[in-house]
């Protein structure tokens, strides 16, 4: 009994062999990981918020979620696969060289770095097999066009297309992919999408470090942070602009027996576009608020240093000793009395912005000018 247990499913004395299981790709693993990390960061922010009191809780929530959203959308749009999309339900030939037809949903998703083609049968089980394919043809990592056709010196997508032919991919997938491999006369859709994706890719990655710098400067110089946030929005909008204008030639329409694949902009394009405008509005709003309501802006961004400097003159003691003078503060003036009864009066509160000085009026003598005391030199009595 035990001998048969250990020899089951074995070829001779070799290990157990199992048949290969072909499973379709149902989700983009990288994109799913990015979305998961974003949700995890937002969840961590939600957990922290109950520990913050008062209206600071709202300020912290707005700042935190807005920061996470902008950074996450930049990265997700870079690796997102739906800058241009198209789908169709059609009846098409299944394999090249045969007349067997299937009914399926065909979809094409064009990203900045690759093309994703899906073929899903309706129903999935047709012709005695499961029809559910998801194939990706990439321009990266070389980004080069390479030579025409399918030699070892051709571009990355041409070589992957040739490999797909050797593997016997279904005819609809090869039919769509071939449109991106031809590079002659006015049939240059592959070159067009590759170049537009390449320059948009550069602009998107340019937005990422400016977003990081903007968040660092929010704790230092708010105006400079606003400038870098505006620059982040400019990079994002420039990525959309370049993706539109660099493509040339006729519009890509891929015909099938009973329909045509017509492309439109997908959610990756629109999320980059909307985030670009959001960064512009955010940066301009911070600039305006910091100019007309600086203390409120400092309170919103928890700029304690600036709020402290603005309020130094309000927190001074009502009475203190300075170089032998007894100084008393009132709402309208500062009265300084010496220990021998002489007095000095200042016109206004002591502050950084008010550089007026006190006058000392001893009896039977000329007035003497003395500077406003520095709050750091004050000793409370």
The shape, in one word, is: globular
* Structure class: alpha+beta
State the helix count: 10
Runs in which pLDDT lies below 50 for 5 or more consecutive residues are 308-320, 330-368
What's the helix and strand layout?
Elements: H1 2-7, H2 29-48, H3 56-79, E1 84-93, E2 101-110, E3 114-126, E4 129-138, H4 156-167, H5 171-178, H6 189-217, H7 222-245, E5 253-256, E6 259-262, E7 264-265, H8 267-292, H9 294-300, H10 304-310, E8 319-322, E9 325-329, E10 334-338, E11 343-346, E12 358-360, E13 368-370, E14 379-380
List its traits:
single chain, 381 residues, alpha+beta, 7-stranded antiparallel sheet, 5-stranded antiparallel sheet, 10 helices, 21% strand
Could you characterize the architecture of this molecule?
- The protein is an alpha+beta fold.
- It has helices spanning 2-7, 29-48, 56-79, 156-167, 171-178, 189-217, 222-245, 267-292, 294-300, 304-310; strands at residues 84-93, 101-110, 114-126, 129-138, 253-256, 259-262, 264-265, 319-322, 325-329, 334-338, 343-346, 358-360, 368-370, 379-380.
- A hairpin with a 7-residue loop joins strand 12 (358-360) and strand 13 (368-370).
- The longest helix has 29 residues, at 189-217.
Question: What would you say about this model in short?
Answer:
With 381 residues, this protein is an alpha+beta fold. It contains 10 helices and 14 strands.
